[in-house]
Amino acid sequence: ATKVLRVAAPGDVLSLDSSIATDGFSFEVISAFQEGLVVYAADDTVIPAVATSWTVSEDGKEYVFTLNPAAKWSNGDAVTASDFVFAWQRLADPATAAEYAIMLQTANIANAADIAAGTKPVTDLGVEAVDATTLKITLGAAVPYFLQLMTFPSFLPLNQAFVEAQGASYATGADSLLSNGPFILTDWVLGSTITLAKN
């Protein structure tokens, strides 16, 4: 038999675009169908998600994440390091006008403040796809809680080709979103219901 969990929502979801969303309920839904580098375990430790492992430089200013080559988007595309680079550059871009672009500065990612100020291009952000499964992040200074920050939904990956193909309609309905998490968003009736199915 199909198991169904019905949850009363505190209000409507305001956005399911991980770069734009700011409210807790939107983040809850996004976190059900998308997955980032790491997640919290039940005991509040940070454990691997899309990243299978990582190394930290001695000075704490460089993180290199190895991604799971089996990680997939719901359209069959592989989840790659470039998906994180695109998402974070989109978050940083002043044209996106993302309220939580400030999280890039909280995480002290190199050049985030200058990009926000418009004095450096988004391509200068301290995030690099070394190859499809290797993501290198450079910080301006060590941040002891950096891994905890990586659980925040603003740091989720985005499939560049899909997002750009959707244009202004990205994240406006179930057909204009991709999943790489434990659930797939199958239906979204604005102001009424959101339906998620096991991925």
Describe this structure in words.
It is built from 6 helices and 8 strands, in the order αββββαααββααββ. It has 199 residues and is of the alpha+beta class. It has a 4-stranded antiparallel sheet, covered by helices on one side. Strands 1-2 form a two-stranded antiparallel ribbon. The two termini are 17 Å apart. β3 and β4 form a beta hairpin.
Mean pLDDT metric:
95
Give the strand order, joined by hyphens, for the main sheet. 3-4-6-5
Radius of gyration: 17 Å
Distance between the termini: 17 Å
> Share of helix among residues?
10-25%
Instruction: Supply the helix-strand structural class.
Output: alpha+beta
Order of helices and strands: HEEEEHHHEEHHEE
Show unreliable segments: none
Beta-strand proportion: 15-25%
What's the layout of helices and strands?
Blueprint: H1 24-33, E1 38-40, E2 46-48, E3 51-56, E4 62-67, H2 81-92, H3 102-106, H4 112-116, E5 127-131, E6 134-138, H5 146-149, H6 160-166, E7 183-189, E8 193-198
Antiparallel strand pairs: 1-2, 3-4, 4-6, 5-6, 7-8
Keywords:
alpha+beta, single chain, 199 residues, globular, 4-stranded antiparallel beta sheet, 8 strands
Write a compact overview of the structure shown.
22% of the residues lie in helices and 21% in strands. The chain has 199 residues and is an alpha+beta fold. The strands form three sheets. The protein has a four-stranded antiparallel β-sheet with strand order 3-4-6-5, covered by helices on one side. It has a two-stranded antiparallel sheet with strand order 1-2. Strands 7-8 form a two-stranded antiparallel sheet.
